[in-house]
């Protein structure tokens, strides 16, 4: 009977042969490798239903999903399958059975690993030492508590003498970040600290592994087997270098044998560095072999040996690391306990507690046995996204009973930032095979049709690679799928993959070109009928920083869109305005928040009005209480309205919860009505038009204040600040996308599919950040010092390689969301070179270009026209290389012009502060702060001059922000308003020109020198006494180089068009720089080298040393 039922169920689900095997197999553990679109969830639900048919009750089956949403969907699918069986039942008894099972599904164990862990802990509160009523803490609140724990712990560490070495060798901000990072992985850190890894043995072992790689050992063995005469015959007088090379390499091997890794590293560096390839015969095989040897050495060894670094390993630096590591371990214990105390006071656990607590409980035989008796089958979806703790919990529950069924796809493991470990799936798959389990491959895809699948396979095979790497278990090669259907819908035309490239001189200019070129192409495809409706289309981004370029392009093109996960929910304009109001209410002295508040659509003061209020010298709130007669009639009305409304709201700040206060703000301002009229750029029917999207986001903000567990306004703002510091991002309010293109991150699109997919902003460069601390069971705890320990270099190299491998998997996930058509939208930079223009490929574009046969070589010959090309297997591609911005139909846009301000000499908005010293000496008066600045509101049609651009550049240099960093765009947006630039065009042009100068400087050697500095101080203010009173100055940049010397740099943005102009400016600025130099030397009591850096010297960066 059960066998017949199983067949009925399998028929109902329409499973193919391999899916049926996976659903039917019993008596052993099963691992299913399921590619994109292969129906893995359908297979898992079918197996679940079959287990019910065989007599198991829902509570005896545990199904683990990656997200709560996936659990809800799975529960609904199981219930649907039971409903079908109820309708197919042959008799009332059978019908009643299916009906009863369907009713029990509400209590079934279908959920996330964390919900299962919480259930285990609540069933054993005494053993776990917990109140069974504990709450699971929201991640944002957990982060707030972690920050408090770190701050409290640092205050204690400062008072204890034994921790002085930590503060002596680490900057406070770095020590703070270190402890925050360790607390973010606290149980992993606890375990690794307890291992007490022998650092020297680990380094020796790692170097020994590398020295025995075939790329090195085979070359060394071959050279040792040759006589000096035969070497000399091949390479002439280069033979002496070869002999010296082998001698030094032998010394390195001996040092490793004696467990002296520092000596070994330096001998290896000496061996490679002694090779002078200018000597010897041309065409020598030995020379070519050793050139390749050196390239491999720098790639594999240099992170540890630092051959090309100014600070190679020393015994002193390694001993310092070994001395500080135990102190850091003690500090971690203290901060961990402080955080646990904060959790205990709230009777709360975070997600790490749930995993660790359940893991510890299941180590007990009695508890583990009880749960194994209760759970007879375990099904795990998305197993590639589990970590080692989760794997151990699942295996403890499963035991050796053959009741485990796991489904996953290593190619789609993209949650490393959540500590998912792709090697866990690989290890479990091998274990199950080794122990007689049943492996199944689902390689038939129901998502993509044959033409698209084959074209995509050509690209991914080349971009990702197809061979396993024994030395990198975290690398996952590409393996192709088989299409279930060969035909595409009639309205989809070949080619099935298109590439749309936007080109310009720099990234910030090229990205808008790429976005507009894509918008133009989508309009063409819609007109051709290849896009039937806009909600068939999804744009997928590696990072949300690319959203604004495409949002703006779609708004201008009139393409309706909805952003599923925005730049950060709290950075959306409509949300930022409300948060600014909360900040201003929480602190009336917060001028930045008040400026945003007054300028927002809620109050609508003009730029000129803000400027006049600033001239009073009072904070904005106090200025609003004063004389407003200098403002225009419209601004006076707006200012008085702001004063009246704020008078109503301020008394409520400490009296009502934040949720109630925010609701009051929205009601008093009639904010929804404001949103309904604010977006005059939106076309009718556009998803960005007022109403829909903006209103949903406001509703979501209200919901966040109610569910955030933050009671007061200040608590809520602290939580937001913590989210920002921690780099967390909140998605926009979800929305139905009917009639709209969807913009979302690739991670957000996981598990989804769309008829037309655009891989957007593919030229974004994914530069892995250098972490302050790395954790590894093999390498232990390593953290950054100056100079960096050898283990830190090895850990950083490993982390970078793992990040790059995951980036390939993210690319795979993105491309495999497409059903019918794939478009790759990217940008490139076109630079002038010695032999004409050259196309610089960025981000994934380089990989994709290689996979498509180096199409970029023909880009410049086919500007603004389609190029027909083919993949290596002959599948067609369409490529479009755009250098001009497409024009869209003009639309009415209302822009309010601020009142003009007279061009009188005005004082600075803020006075410089004295902070670097007070010196009794005569100073040259050519410094920019000693001049009276001509601040004014620029008329919209007036040509932009250099002063605002210079100010923008200096602001960016002060924070060390450069193009490509999302924070730069926010800074420039804020600063352009402070420069009193009225029109959007002026602000955009000023930002563009500032970015051009910053990007130019970033590619100059001086940037690398400063970036690697031991210490760096930007925009350093000081005061001095002069004959006409106290004067103030600001030093652009003062830094201490790697060699310990102090350097001073003064940046100039003057446009230089001739050598004579440069000489004139150098002479003009020299005295100014010398005065800075004298001041710095007096304060530091050391010699300071001073330089002038011109950022626009005939289109280049030039540096002039100023002699004292």
Question: Could you walk me through the main structural features you see in this protein, from its secondary elements to its overall organization?
Answer:
It is a single chain. This protein is an alpha/beta fold and 1108 residues long. The chain is 50% helix and 14% strand. It contains 42 helices and 27 strands. Strands 11, 12, 13, 14, 15, 18, 19, 20 and 21 form a nine-stranded mixed sheet that branches. Strand 18 and strand 19 (836-840) form a beta hairpin. Helix 13 runs antiparallel to helix 17. The radius of gyration is 33 Å and the shape is globular. The model is unreliable at 679-691, 724-736 and 890-943 (pLDDT under 50).
The total of beta strands comes to 27
The number of helices is: 42
Structural class by helix and strand composition:
alpha/beta
Please estimate the helix content. 40-55%
Low-pLDDT regions: 679-691, 724-736, 890-943
Mean pLDDT equals: 84
């Amino acid at each position: 009977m059960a066998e017949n039922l199983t067949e009925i169920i399998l028929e109902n689900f329409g499973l193919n042969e391999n899916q049926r095997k996976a659903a039917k197999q019993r008596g052993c553990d099963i691992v299913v490798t399921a590619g994109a679109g292969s129906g893995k969830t359908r297979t898992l639900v079918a197996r679940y239903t079959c287990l019910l048919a065989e007599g198991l009750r829902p509570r005896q089956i545990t199904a683990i999903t990656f997200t709560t949403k996936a659990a809800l969907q799975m529960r609904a699918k199981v219930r649907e399958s039971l409903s079908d069986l109820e309708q197919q039942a042959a008799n009332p008894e059978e019908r009643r059975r299916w009906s009863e099972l369907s009713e029990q599904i509400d209590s079934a164990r279908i959920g996330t690993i964390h919900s299962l862990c919480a259930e285990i802990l609540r069933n054993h509160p005494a053993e776990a030492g917990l109140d069974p009523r504990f709450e699971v803490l929201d991640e944002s609140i957990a982060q707030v508590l972690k920050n408090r724990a770190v701050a409290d712990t640092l205050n204690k560490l400062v008072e204890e003498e034994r921790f002085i070495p930590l503060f002596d060798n680490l900057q406070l901000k770095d020590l703070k970040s270190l402890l925050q990072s360790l607390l973010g992985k606290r149980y992993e850190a606890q375990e690794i600290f307890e291992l007490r890894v022998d650092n020297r043995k680990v380094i020796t072992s790692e170097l020994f592994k590398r020295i025995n790689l075939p790329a090195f050992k085979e070359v060394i063995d071959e050279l040792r087997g040759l006589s000096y005469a035969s070497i000399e015959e091949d390479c002439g007088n280069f033979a002496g270098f070869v002999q010296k090379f082998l001698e030094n390499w032998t010394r390195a091997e001996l040092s490793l044998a004696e467990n002296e890794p520092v000596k070994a590293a330096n001998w290896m560096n000496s061996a490679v560095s002694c090779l002078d390839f200018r000597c010897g015969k041309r065409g020598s095989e030995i020379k070519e072999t050793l050139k390749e040897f050196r390239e491999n050495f720098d790639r594999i060894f240099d992170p540890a040996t630092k051959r090309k670094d100014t600070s190679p390993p020393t015994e002193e630096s390694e001993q310092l690391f070994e001395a500080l590591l135990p102190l850091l371990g003690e500090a971690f214990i203290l901060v961990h306990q402080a955080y646990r105390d904060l959790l205990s006071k709230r009777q709360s656990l975070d997600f790490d507690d749930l995993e660790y607590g359940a893991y510890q409980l299941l180590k007990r035989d009695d508890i583990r046995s009880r749960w194994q008796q209760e759970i007879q089958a375990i099904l795990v979806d998305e197993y590639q996204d589990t970590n080692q703790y989760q794997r151990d919990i699942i295996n403890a529950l499963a035991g050796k009973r053959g009741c485990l069924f796991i489904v996953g796809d290593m190619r789609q493991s993209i949650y490393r930032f959540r500590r998912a470990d792709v090697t866990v799936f690989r290890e479990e798959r091998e274990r199950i095979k080794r122990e007689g389990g049943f492996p199944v491959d689902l390689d038939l895809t129901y998502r993509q049709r044959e033409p698209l699948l084959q074209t995509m396979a050509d690209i991914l095979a080349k971009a990702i690679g197809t061979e396993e790497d024994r030395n990198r278990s975290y690398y996952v090669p590409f393996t192709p799928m088989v299409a279930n259907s060969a035909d595409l819908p009639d309205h989809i035309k070949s080619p099935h993959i298109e590439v749309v490239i936007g080109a310009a001189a720099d990234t910030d200019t090229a990205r808008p070109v790429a976005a507009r070129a894509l918008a133009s192409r989508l309009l063409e495809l819609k007109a051709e009928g290849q896009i039937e409706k806009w909600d068939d289309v999804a744009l997928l981004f590696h990072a949300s920083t690319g959203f604004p370029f495409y949002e703006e392009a779609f708004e201008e093109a009139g393409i309706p869109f909805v952003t599923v996960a925005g730049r950060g929910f709290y950075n959306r304009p409509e949300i930022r305005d409300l948060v600014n109001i909360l900040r201003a209410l929480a602190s009336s002295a917060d001028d930045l928040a008040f400026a945003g508040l007054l300028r927002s659509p809620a109050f609508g003061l003009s730029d000129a009005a803000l400027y006049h209020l600033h001239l009073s010298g009072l904070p904005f709130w106090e200025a609003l209480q004063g004389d407003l007669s200098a403002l225009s009639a419209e601004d006076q009305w707006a200012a008085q309205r702001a004063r009246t409304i704020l008078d109503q709201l301020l008394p409520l700040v400490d009296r009502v919860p934040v949720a109630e206060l925010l609701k009051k703000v929205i009601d008093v301002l009639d904010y929804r009505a404001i949103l309904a009229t604010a977006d005059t750029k939106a076309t009718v029917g556009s998803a960005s038009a007022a109403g829909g999207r903006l209103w949903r986001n406001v509703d979501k903000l209200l919901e966040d204040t109610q569910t955030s567990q933050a009671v007061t306004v200040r608590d809520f703002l602290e939580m937001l600040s913590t989210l920002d510091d921690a780099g967390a991002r909140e998605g926009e309010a979800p929305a139905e996308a009917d009639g709209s293109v969807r913009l979302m991150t690739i991670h957000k699109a996981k598990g989804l599919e769309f008829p037309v997919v655009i891989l957007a902003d593919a030229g974004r460069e994914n530069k892995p950040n250098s972490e302050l601390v790395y954790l590894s069971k093999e390498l232990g705890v390593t953290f950054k010092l100056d100079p960096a320990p050898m283990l830190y270099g090895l850990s950083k190299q490993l982390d970078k390689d793992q990040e790059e491998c995951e980036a390939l998997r993210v690319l795979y996930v993105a491309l495999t969301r497409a059903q019918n058509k794939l478009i790759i939208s990217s940008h490139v930079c076109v630079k002038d070179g010695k032999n004409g223009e050259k196309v610089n490929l960025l981000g994934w574009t380089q990989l994709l270009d290689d996979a498509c046969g180096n199409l970029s070589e023909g880009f410049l010959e086919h500007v603004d026209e389609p190029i027909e090309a083919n993949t290596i297997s002959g599948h067609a591609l369409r490529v479009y290389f755009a250098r001009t911005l497409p024009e869209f139909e003009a639309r009415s846009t209302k822009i309010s012009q601020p009142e003009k301000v007279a061009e009188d000499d005005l004082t600075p908005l803020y006075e410089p502060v004295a902070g670097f010293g007070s010196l009794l000496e005569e100073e040259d008066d050519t410094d920019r702060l000693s001049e009276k600045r001509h601040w004014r509101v620029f008329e919209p049609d007036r040509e932009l001059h250099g002063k605002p651009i210079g100010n923008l550049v200096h602001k960016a240099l002060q924070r060390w922000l450069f193009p490509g960093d999302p924070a730069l765009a926010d800074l420039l947006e804020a600063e352009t308003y402070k420069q009193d630039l009225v029109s959007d065009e002026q602000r955009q042009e000023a930002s563009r020109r500032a970015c051009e100068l910053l990007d130019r400087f970033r590619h100059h050697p001086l940037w690398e020198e400063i970036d690697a500095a031991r210490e760096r101080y930007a925009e350093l203010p000081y005061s001095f006494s002069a004959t006409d009173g106290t004067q103030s100055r600001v030093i652009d940049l003062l830094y201490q180089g790697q060699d310990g010397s102090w350097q001073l740099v003064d940046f100039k943005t003057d446009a230089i068009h001739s050598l004579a102009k440069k000489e004139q400016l150098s002479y003009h600025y020299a005295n100014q720089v010398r005065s800075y130099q004298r001041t710095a030397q007096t304060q530091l009591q050391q010699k300071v080298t001073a330089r002038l850096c011109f950022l626009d010297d005939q289109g280049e960066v030039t540096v002039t040393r100023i002699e004292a």
